[in-house]
Amino acid sequence: MSSERRISPAAPRERDARIASVSRPGFGSSSENKKCGVPHGFSAKVTWQVSPPGYRAGAMKLPSLVLISCVLLGSVGCGRKETSAAATPPPPAPSAGPKTFELTAGDAMKFNLSRMEVTAGETVKVILTNTGTLPRDVMGHNWVLLKKDASGQAFANAAMTCKEQDYLPPQLADQVIAHTRLVGPRQTDEVVFKAPAEPGEYPFLCSFPAHYASGMKGVLVIR
Q: Is-above-0.85 flag for pTM?
């Protein structure tokens, strides 16, 4: 009696194609990934298990589905480019203030500065401080800037009789570009003005009686 060897059909689960392993990105074939529908950034290696010869799928007419497993590597945002924060623009540069001169004058009847230089059209600030101790009526000081063609001596002479106007002669007001008020001991006053557009030397003085003759004068140079 001849023995007959039988081959048992493979169990349904063994005839399906399975993925034997999943590799990290870069280890799998890119062509395999495309065929299997693996997303960019993943790699899958597929192994097919073939049913024994002669096995019939019975009522199953379509091939079994391929099972794909994918391992997500990295964070949830893998594959997305991080957007760098926009650079903060630098703050605007602060606008330049006026060119400032600090003048002092005391009981010796002298300005600490006899020459000042500025650019045509520049904003200028002059701060005058009386550093003396004598009363204002005896030793008051001011700073008066005249036009380029004005005479400091003529202005000082006319100012001698204008005590009620703090020694600023009204008849020569058109010759004055800028001036401070008359200050007493330990007092300060300031004036801000635009430098003339025409270059040259512009005289300034203290118009208190006899102070011009004592040397309280100088020039503002426009370049």
A: no
State yes or no: pLDDT of 53 exceeds 50. Answer: yes
Q: What is the pLDDT, as a whole number, of residue 90?
A: 74
What's the CA gap between 215 and 156, in Å, rounded? 12
Last residue of one domain, picked from the residues 58, 74, 90:
74
214 with 112, same domain: the answer is yes
Q: Which residue among 31, 57, 74 closes a domain?
A: 74
Window from 19-23, 80-84, 102-106, 216-220 with minimum mean pLDDT: 19-23
When divided into structural domains, the chain yields a total of 2
Spell 57-77 as b/e; 16+ CB within 10 A means b. Answer: eeeeeeeeeeeeebeeeeeee
Q: Residues 66, 157: one domain?
A: no
The order of strands in the sheet holding 99-105 is: 99-105, 123-130, 188-194
